[in-house]
Design goal:
193 residues; mainly beta; OB fold (Dihydrolipoamide Acetyltransferase, E2P); 2 helices; globular
């Protein structure tokens, strides 16, 4: 079967909702046990998972679909003075101010800036955080047998890359975006973990 084409972000609407699987019922109408597990646990148990595919630093990555509330494209991020370099600014989204972060350096990468970023809007506690990426591709089914251990680089990246999946669109680094954001937002607020 030929690979399905990957849609470009130019063809995507400026705001797109990503379906949530957190309360997906099983065939019997009972919530699935997998829905209660986090992305890391699903991968460790060999269950496979669903991921949102995006490009960052020229590489293809995937994060737990259940984290991403929506994808925003073609919107201006308003810079703020005196903020850490990983905070790009604020996004005005339906009257809500959403901070936008660049997590590329946590992965040892540099985000390419050939135009406005695509933004993954992620729920964090009672608020939301935007994650700037180069482009968002599609929702992927990641079967357990497609996942291999991530190569160790000896850097911070090792703590966040959970594995590498070989899929029809290519090699996808499966990352623990929740952990990156937990560490970044705790450090930014001055709180101690």
């Amino acid at each position: 079967m030929p690979d399905a084409p990957v849609p470009s972000t130019a063809a995507m609407p400026s705001t797109a909702s990503v379906p949530s699987t957190t309360s997906a019922p099983s065939a019997a109408g009972v919530p699935s046990a997998a829905a209660d597990l986090d992305f890391v646990a699903l991968l460790e148990r060999g269950e496979g998972a669903q991921a949102v595919a995006f490009r960052l630093g020229g590489e293809l990555h995937g994060c737990d679909i259940r984290l991403v509330e929506e994808v925003v494209t073609k919107r201006q991020v308003h810079p703020l003075p005196d903020v850490p370099p990983q905070v790009l600014g604020m996004l005005l989204l339906r009257g809500e101010m959403v901070p936008v972060m660049d997590v590329a350096d946590a992965l040892g990468l540099e985000r390419r800036t050939e135009g406005p970023p695509s933004i993954l809007v992620v729920g964090m506690g009672e608020g939301r955080v935007g994650v700037a990426v180069e482009s968002v591709h599609e929702v992927l089914d990641v079967p357990a047998d497609s996942i291999r251990p991530a190569p160790h680089t000896g850097g911070d990246r090792d703590a966040y890359v959970l594995g590498v999946a070989r899929l029809g669109i290519g090699l996808v680094n499966l990352i623990d975006l929740a952990e990156i954001l937990r560490e970044r937002t705790t450090l930014d607020s001055g709180d101690q973990p």
